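In the current project phase, our protein records have gained a structure token line. A sample record follows, to show the layout:
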Amino acid sequence: MTKNPVQENNTLQGIAVSPGIIIGKARLIDRSKAKISYQYLISEQQTQQEVKRFKDALHTTKEQIMVLKNRMPEQIKEHAFILDTHLMIIDDRMLTESTIHSILEEKINAEWALKKSVQKIRQLFEQIDYEYIRDRINDVENVAERILRNLAGKGHESLASIEERVIIVAHDLSPGDTSELNTAKVLGFITDVGGRTSHTAIMAQALKIPAVVGLESVSHQVQDGMLLIVDGYQGIVIIGPDDDVIIEYEEKRSKHEIYRATILQMGHLPAETLDGHRIAVKANIELLEEVETARDYGAEGIGLYRTEFLYLMSKGIPDEEMLFSDYKEVAEKIFPAPVTIRTLDLGGDKFPVNHEPTKEVNPALGLRAIRYCLKEPEIFKNQLRAILRASVFGRIQLMFPMISGLPELLESKRIIKEVMGDLEDKNIQFDRDIRIGVMIEVPSAVTTADILAEHVDFFSIGTNDLIQYALAIDRINEHVAFMYQPYHPAVIRMIQQVVKAAKDAKITVSLCGEMAGDPFCASLLLAMGIDELSMNAWAIPLLKKVIRSISKADADADLTAIMKLKTAKEVQHFIKKRMEDLIPDLKDKDFFIKNAMNFSVH
């Protein structure tokens, strides 16, 4: 049974998906699912007419989405791909052909058949542990809901006509709904359902309006005109606040707006310490559309471009031209800054939606990343060709994930040379001096880092996986997640060992895990000799502020003291106290650090 999220003082806890604090009146919008009280059998003679009725509803739905796409405000035009996704869903055989098949074979009405198709798709998506892809079922259900309304002849209330300054309250909002919002009038929105990586969340961020989702039953508890406070940092909604609470949140809003504006100014300054030591600060991205956000927050390049999205969302393996077009555009958009493209990290919990995952007892230790690519060389070569062809349009470098030893690296480089030779034979241009690196994510790569360094141009330390593998911790397992400790002496020594190997070989070393964006880790990583940090774009301004407030000399001295400590708790206490002494702002900014920095797309 779903637990009611209402707490004392009419306070609800949801999921923060777009930052900001707003106070205003509620506008309740009916986005409940279309009620289908009739599920009935039809005769053989009625099946073709029922199929036609379904196809007509598809056509109407497609026209509606096209209108929404053409009317998108300029500020979110770059997110038109989301509505393109909805158009693709309408044409997807998993939805359309399956529904038509049910109508014809089971002799059932179109509404019932469509519901059955969506249920099958939901069951498929629920098997995927990767949150961003799992949340795509929301898009399928948004499209199906619009089709159902068209089948039932029900209107779909447009949000474009709202003329009051209100907070939208709904069971759910589709990206199409969000694209219609008049941001001069709509202060923000709250919904019963949704997640951090939903396309509706992405649209809210692009529109820069606060939003909280996953409130479970808020649409049943709020009436039109009720006063609400929406805290888009912490995911809190307060219904009918009293005067004291309103004053508290008005002060909190003012305080955070001033602080955020101050921090954002830091994003476009160099990450240079008080004594002149410079470190590069870059962004991690998963989608082409995130490049602009990265630049807006002051990224000096893309330190990690995860390339799984096109594979996970395609009906089949994406062809070389699709990949080339994507990589080329990323390189051009970020130029003259560089972009580091990570080759496929499929496997584990990430497989294309139409691909049957290999049943493994422990997928994290199984066929994934470079192992998957070496087992599927044609898929690997296809991607490498696309990367190499795109390399002439910007400053691209590539790296291999989850390298555990020299044989994997040498085989990967052999395949690159083979692909290069093929391109040369066809007189296709590419950067012959493209920089090649490896991600250091497993303990064996750490202990053989000196060997690997002889064969690459750079290292990138992926601390998220490294910490898990080094400490034998599954950080999404609630029973042991507390043991996931970035400050563990073993983790710090591993990073130091990798940096030393890189420096001895005269190659650069970056760090792209969550530690990179943690402001309390900045001094530590600086002292260890990391050349660049790559993180969630939202974390860049605060990270630069921290670096510009400390000296390399002080950081070096702190590292000497840290290396004598014996436990993660001791290290964390030392670092927290030192950083708060050097940068008093950090004492009061946990709220911003823990929440506002987590609004990236994936």
